[in-house]
Amino acid sequence: MHPSVQRKFTSLLLVSCLLVLMGGPLSADDSGDLSEGRVYAIQDRDFRMSQEFSVGLAFLPLDAFYKYFALSGHYVLHFNDLWAWEAIHVSFSKFMDINTGLEAQMSSDWDVSATDTEKIDYFIDTNLMIKPMYGKVALFNKWVVYLESYFLLGVGAEKFQTAWFPAVDVGAGMRIFLTNTLSLRFEAREYIYIEEGGVDSTLFLGFGFSYNAFAEDRFIDRDSQRVGVRQ
Amino acid sequence: MRLNKVNCIGLGWVLALSLALAGQSSLAVAQEGEEVPAPAGDLPPPADDDGLSDEELAELEGGEEDLDRVGPEVFDEGVKLYYEGDYVGASKRLWDYMSGNAPGAKNYGYAEYFMALSLDQLNLTHGAVEYYFNVAKNRTKPELLPDALQALEVLSRKVPIDQDLIFKDLIYDTSFGFIREDLRGFIEYIQGLLDYRNGFIQWGQLHFQRIDKGSYYYYKARYVQAVYELVKFQLEESLKIFEEIMASDFEQADVINKTRQSVARILFEQKKFDEAYQMYERIDSPVEKQASVFLEEAWAKYYQKDFRRAMGLLYALEAPAFYRYFNPEKFLIKALIYKNLCHYNVAKDAVAEYRQHYGEAVEAIYNRVDMDQNEILLDAALQDPALIEMSEFGGLLDTEMGRLADYSADWGENGLLDHLNRIYELKIKDTNRRLKMKLDRAIRSVAEDLLEFEEQMNLLEYEIGLSIYKRIKGTPTQKEASKQSVPSSGPQVYYAFDGEFWNDELHDFRFFIEDRCFSEERWE
Amino acid sequence: MRLGTRHGGGRVLLSALVAAGLLLSPKPTLAVDQAQYQEQGSTSPIQRRKYELGHELSLGWAYLPLDAYYKGYGLQVAYTIHFSDLVALELFRVGWSYNIDTKLKNKLIDQMPDISPGEFPAVVLWEHTNLLLKLFYGKQSFLNGTVLHFELFATAGGAFVFRNPYPIWDGDQSNAHYEFGVNGGFGFRFWLNPDWSVRVDMRDTVILFTLNQSKLRAKNSAMIGLTFAVNL
Hints:
- The complex is a heterotrimer.
- Helices cover 13% and strands 54% of the residues of chain A.
- Chain A is mainly beta.
- Chain A starts with a helix and ends in an 18-residue tail after the last strand.
- By secondary structure, chain B is mainly α.
- Chain B contains 22 helices and two strands.
- Chain B has helices at residues 2-24, 54-60, 72-83, 87-99, 108-121, 125-138, 145-158, 163-172, 181-197, 201-209, 216-231, 235-246, 254-269, 273-281, 291-303, 307-316, 329-340, 344-367, 375-381, 385-404, 408-411, 416-473; strands at residues 492-496, 509-512.
- In chain B, helix 12 (235-246) runs antiparallel to helix 13, helix 14 packs antiparallel against helix 15 and helix 16 (307-316) runs antiparallel to helix 17 (329-340).
- The longest helix of chain B has 58 residues, at 416-473.
- By secondary structure, chain C is mainly β.
- Chain C has a single domain, classed as Porin, CATH 2.40.160.20.
- Chain C has an eight-stranded antiparallel barrel.
- Chains B and C meet through helix 3, helix 7 and strand 1 of B and helix 1 and strand 5 of C.
- Strand 1 (38-44) of chain A pairs antiparallel with strand 2 (509-512) of chain B, so a sheet runs across the interface.
C-alpha cells in the first residue's frame, strides 16, 4: 500500500468509524408501526441552540514530523433542532507545532536530513451541520447530563506555509450541555485537500467551549410543568 | 354505566386514604395495653419466649461484681476515639466503661450519649435511638437533652424509628420544661398530634399554637388540622388550610406533597379532573414514593379520555421501584383503555394479565385458607398505611442486626455485640408481634378490595366479549381514525421506551396506539 | 468512678472539658434550614439499567497510527470484569499488529544503504491490564425514533509491548525489544442488544523501560481499537 494512500485511508477510516458508530441506530428497528402500541417518553428539550459562538483547541496528530495544536473559532447558526449551518470555522496552527524529534533522530542515527515538510498554518471552512441525536447520560450514576451528537459536511481550504489548498471536510462530534447558554464540544474532522499532484488529508481533533447567544428565543414555556422530579 | 359507578366507588378509597394518612402520617401509636420494651441499658425482664435468665441479663449488663472497676480513662479514650472518627473503637471503649460502672456514675450519661452518636455514625440507628432515649428520658445529664432530642428529631425524619418508644413514651409522656426554640416545634407537634389522635382536640390545638409560624412542624400541624376538618366534612375550611400549606415555600417536603395529593383527591372527587391532574403533577417527592400518584393521575386522565397519557402513567408503574406496589387497578384501567380504543384482544389480555398476577390470591380468598400465607395478600397488606412504617421499621431492624456481625471482631470480646444483638432481637420480636396483631385486619381489607376488583374484571371481560360480538355484527365504516405520528425532530425529544426506567421520564410517558373504533360508540 | 486515684482528677477534668466542648460546639441556627426537610429519594437517575455488564469478552481490530515508519493493523482480544456500574478491571487486552512500512521508511532504506530494516522495531504484540472508570452511561434518541444506549469510560493501567522489526513468522528476533510501561486513554461503547456491544478504545502507551536494551529513548504508541464485546 502506498504510504500516502494508506494515510488517507487510515484517516478516513477513523472518521468513518466514528460516523458509522454514531449513526449506528440507522440500522436499528423502526418505530413507524403504531398499531400494536408503543410507549415514548416525551420531554421538552432542556437545551436548544440558537446562535453559537465557540472557541476551542484542536490537535492534529497524524503528521510524522510535527504534531500541531490549533486555536479554533466557530460561528454556527442553528436553524432548528435538526439543521444548522456552521457559517465559519477558522483554526490557526501557525507557530503551534511540536517537533516530534523525528528529524533529529534521523540525523543523529543515520546522518540523514529530511526534505522540508510544509507546515499547516490554518484552516478555514464552512459546514452544514445535522444534529439527529439528542440524549442524556448519567454521570457517575448520579447526575443527569444532556448532550447531542452532530455530523458535519463542508468545504474550505487549508493554508500551508507556501500555498492554499482547497478542501472538503467531514466530521462528527458531541456537544455536552452545561447550561442553556454554555456547552462543550468534542469533535473529529477529516480534511481532504487537493494538493499539487494528488490528494492528501489531515485529521483534526477539536474541543471547544460554546456560547449560545439568543438562547432565550428557543426557550420552551415551562410554566405549566411540574417541578423537581428530575434528580 | 354500572362499571363506572363501581370505579367511582373504588375511588372512594382515595379520600379514605387521605384521611387515614392524616392520622397515621408519621405516627403509628401502639395499641392500648401493648407492651413497649424498655430501652438499652434498662433491659426488660426476660419475656416468656426470649429465654433470657436473670443471670444472663446480669452478665449482659456487665455484672454487679464488675461495677466501678473501670476508670474514667476508659470513657476519655472512648470520647477521644469518637472525635478521631473511630466509631467502632469508641463504641467498644464506651461499652467497657458503661458495663463497668453503675448508671449513676458521673460520666455514665455522657457515655450513653457518645455511644448513641457512635452507633448513629455506624448507621446502627435503632441502637442509637435506644441510647438517645436513655439520655433524654433519664436526664442524668440534663444539658444533653436538647442534643439527644435533636438527634431523635433528625432520625425520625430520615429513617423508620421506634415511634412508640420515642413519640409516646418519651415525648408524649414527658414534660420537658423550657426547650430550645428549634426543638419546640417538633415536641409540640408530636404532643399535639397524639392529642388529636386521642380525641383531646383542644389540648392538641394548644400544642399546635405554640409552634412557630412558618416552620416545618407548623405546616405539619396545619395538615393535621386540615384533615381533622375534612373528617368533620368542613370541606371549605379544610381547603383553606391546605391552600395555606401549599403557599409555603418549602420544597420537596413531605407535608407539602401530602397536601397536594389530598387537594388533588378532593378535586378528583369533585370531578375536576384536569385541575386534579395539574395538582398531582405539582407533587415533587422522590419518584419511588409516587406510586399512588401515578395511579390516581391515570384515573384522572382516563376520565378526561386522554387514554394515551393514562396508559403512559400505567407504564410508569411498571418501574422496579413500584414492584411491590399492590395495584390491581392498573389492569382494570389498562383493559378499559384498550376497550375504549377498540383493541379488544389486548383488552382481554389485560384481564388475563390481572388473573395471572392475582388469580392465586383470589383463589386463596375464595377458599378461605391460609390467607396470611399468600405472598400477594401479605405483601399488599403490608402496604396498609397503618402497617407500612412498622414493616419498614422491622426491615431496618433486620438489616442493622445483620450488619452487627461485621463488628464481631471488635465487639465480640467485651460483650457489646451480645448486648446489641439482644436489643435488636427483642425489638424485632416486639415489632413482629405488633405487626401480626394488625396484619389480620389488613389482610381482610385487602381481600375485600381484591374481591371487588375481581368482580369488576369479570364484568369488564363480559363487556369486552359483548363489544367484540357487536363489532362482528356491525358494518365496517370508511371513516379514518386520527393519525398519530412521531416527528423526527422538534422542541420535544421522544425516547422510545425500551424497558429502562429513568426517574426523570416517569411522568412523561405517552402511549401511541391507533384508535380502531372508527364510528363505533365509545365505552362510557 | 474512682475519683480518688492519682490520675483521676485529671481525667475528670478532661471529661468535663470534653463535655463542655460538646455543649459549646456550634448549635444549629434558629433560622429554618428548609433543605433538611426535603424528602430523600434514590440518588440514581436510572432505576435499573437495561444494559449491564458482568464478564465481558471482546474481540476486534486495532490500528496503530502514530509511528513515522509504519502503521499497524492488528487484532486484539480482551477480557474485562465489571465490578459495578462504575468500575471494571480489564484483566488483559492482548493484541497483535501487522505492520506496513511508511513511505519514509522505504525511502530511508532505499536511499541509505547503511540503514538496515532491523533498525525499525515496530509494535508486534502488546498486553494491557487496566482499570476502567465508567463515567457516563446514557442514551440518545435518533430522529426521535430509535434509542441508542452507550457509555463513555476512562482507562489506565500497565502495559507490556513486544517490538520487533520483522513479523513474528520471520523468526528473526535479534533486534526484538521487550518493553514495559503504562497506558491510558478513553473509550466508548454502544449496545446492539443486552448481550452484544461495540466498543471503541483510544489509548496511548508510554514505555518506561526496555528489558534488553540499554539505550533509553522515550517511546509511545497510540492504539485505536474497534471490538465487538459479548457479555458472558
